[in-house]
């Protein structure tokens, strides 16, 4: 996440390369723009404000939070973190993608 915040265009290009897609600079710019937290906060397709309050009540807690790297540590229990780490390891096994999760 940190690298994505530092240089989103570079990280988008890496994902496109992994997906074996040409890294057209116009497309990279569009993806960077539409995937920024600033834009996603206002996009009902990304922030879940278009779904009924019976499913997700934004007056209790918005779906899109600050987008701060490492902020999960303030919310995950030790057990949740261990479960996430195990599931992440299982799902990413054999992948050449590497993400830096810590600041």
UniProtKB/TrEMBL annotation:
<dbReference type="Pfam" id="PF00685">
    <property type="entry name" value="Sulfotransfer_1"/>
</dbReference>
<keyword id="KW-0808">Transferase</keyword>
<dbReference type="InterPro" id="IPR000863">
    <property type="entry name" value="Sulfotransferase_dom"/>
</dbReference>
<comment type="similarity">
    <text>Belongs to the sulfotransferase 1 family.</text>
</comment>
<feature type="domain" description="Sulfotransferase">
    <location>
        <begin position="4"/>
        <end position="95"/>
    </location>
</feature>
<protein>
    <recommendedName>
        <fullName>Sulfotransferase</fullName>
        <ecNumber>2.8.2.-</ecNumber>
    </recommendedName>
</protein>
<dbReference type="InterPro" id="IPR027417">
    <property type="entry name" value="P-loop_NTPase"/>
</dbReference>
């Amino acid at each position: 996440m940190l690298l994505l915040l530092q240089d989103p265009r570079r990280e988008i290009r890496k994902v496109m390369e992994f997906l074996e897609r040409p890294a057209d600079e116009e497309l990279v710019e569009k993806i960077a723009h539409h995937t920024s937290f600033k834009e996603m906060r206002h996009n009902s397709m990304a922030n879940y404000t278009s779904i009924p309050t019976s499913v997700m009540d934004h007056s209790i807690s918005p779906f899109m939070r600050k987008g701060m790297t490492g902020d999960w540590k303030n919310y995950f229990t030790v057990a949740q973190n261990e479960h996430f780490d195990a599931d992440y390891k299982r799902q990413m096994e054999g992948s050449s993608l590497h993400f830096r999760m810590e600041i």
